[in-house]
Amino acid sequence: MIYLNDGHIREIGIDWSLLTSIIESTLQLTGTPEIVQPIKPYLRFKHPSNRIIAMPSFVGGETNISGIKWIASFPGNVTHGIPRAHSTVILNDPDNGVPVAVINSGQLSEIRTAAVSAAMLRHYMALERHPIYHVGMIGWGPIGQRHMEMVMALYGDRLDSVRLFDLKGIDPALLEPQLRTKAIIAAHWQEVYRQSDIVFTCTSSTARYIDEPPPLGSLLMNVSLREYMPNSVQAIKAIVVDHWREVCRENTDIELLHVQKGLMESDTVTLRDVVFAQALQFFAPTEPIFFNPMGMAAFDIAIAAYYWREAERRGIGVRLVD
Predict the structure, then answer these.
(1) Helix/strand/coil percentages in the chain, nearest 5
(2) Which of 3, 18, 229, 258 could form a disulfide with 318 if both were Cys (CB 3.0 to 4.6 A apart)?
(3) 3-state secondary structure of 1
(4) How do the domains of the chain map onto residue ranges?
(5) Which mean pLDDT values do the consecutive 10-residue runs of the chain (322 residues) have?
(6) Bridge-based pairing state of the strands 65-73 and 85-92
């Protein structure tokens, strides 16, 4: 088998348009026998905030691979200078089960997360609700930075401003030059939230804090899933999820809306509906859109398969033999 790490992923590089299309192609197979992904279990032990999640899946079609992502999230790591998340993917040949790749890469997990957001963003931008956009980012850790990289690569020429906020502060001198020309370092999250057409929440907050309704017509990219007080989003009609059974659990904002406000699966649309049924076009232009992606294993396996095949084609990686 082949072994890949962050360095190998960087060497292959990121084509955001291609990765977005891989997410969409995988979405097209959902609901058919070509996608198999059991509800992922959470392994918890000792400290309750720590977890390791198993994400197995088979993705058929042109991808034709099976595998599992094993991702650990230990929030306390950051106080010791260790990354919060650690992700490993194992890929198996679907015809005989033989392992073909091990990918030990936190970057791969970041890339998948941002690529899913890119699929949602592609169809929101197609609505052309604004001639030019103000983007906000609450949380400037690895996930937030990876998302902004994606946004600038795909839509940098359509952005007027980018407001950034992080409790730890942000040094503008460390921003990429293209971003620096548009960036405004905000003093508090409210500034970002109130003055952005597209709001990304990418924090590791342990307590919900957003307590006011969103701007009209805005897109709320709720990447970290546990940011919004139920009263702030209960009136939104355009609620998009990747997978209802996955996202309506584990103390997400969707689960809280379900338990406290009676939100049902029938009140939501899926990302597949957005991509293949133009679901966003049925909402008024002033209606906020609330996107909650729990993360589907099929996406991780499909993106990992792309990097594995690229590594094989380019001769990148470490060959492991008996």
Answers:
(1) 40, 25, 35
(2) 3
(3) coil
(4) 2-109+297-319, 114-292
(5) 98 98 98 97 92 97 98 88 92 97 97 98 97 97 96 98 97 95 97 98 94 97 98 98 97 98 98 98 97 97 98 97 84
(6) antiparallel
Dump the DSSP string for 235-250. T-SEEEES-HHHHSST
Sequence letter at residue 280:
L
Phi, psi at 277, each rounded to 5°: -125, 10
**Among the four given CATH numbers 3.40.50.620, 3.30.1330.10, 3.30.70.100, 3.30.1780.10, the one describing domain 2-109+297-319:** 3.30.1780.10
One-letter identity of residue 316: I
From 77, 79, 66, 80, select the one nearest 106 (Cα to Cα).
77
Note whether 2-109+297-319 and 114-292 share their fold. no
* Residue bearing tokens 């015809």: 95
Residue-wise DSSP of 166-224: -TT---GGGS-HHHHTTEEE-SSHHHHHHT-SEEEE----SS--B-SPPPTT-EEE-TT
CATH architecture of the domain with residue range 114-292: 3-Layer(aba) Sandwich (3.40)
| Entry pTM | 0.96
Q: What's the burial of 258, exposed, middle or buried (CB within 10 Å: 0-12/13-18/19+)?
A: buried
Q: How far apart are CA 16 and CA 96, in angstroms?
A: 32
Q: Buried (b) or exposed (e) across 143-173, using 16+ Cβ within 10 A?
A: bbbbbbbbbbebbeeebebbbbbbeeebeee
**Strand 318-319 vs strand 2-5: parallel, antiparallel, or unpaired?**
antiparallel
Token reading at 206: 């342990």
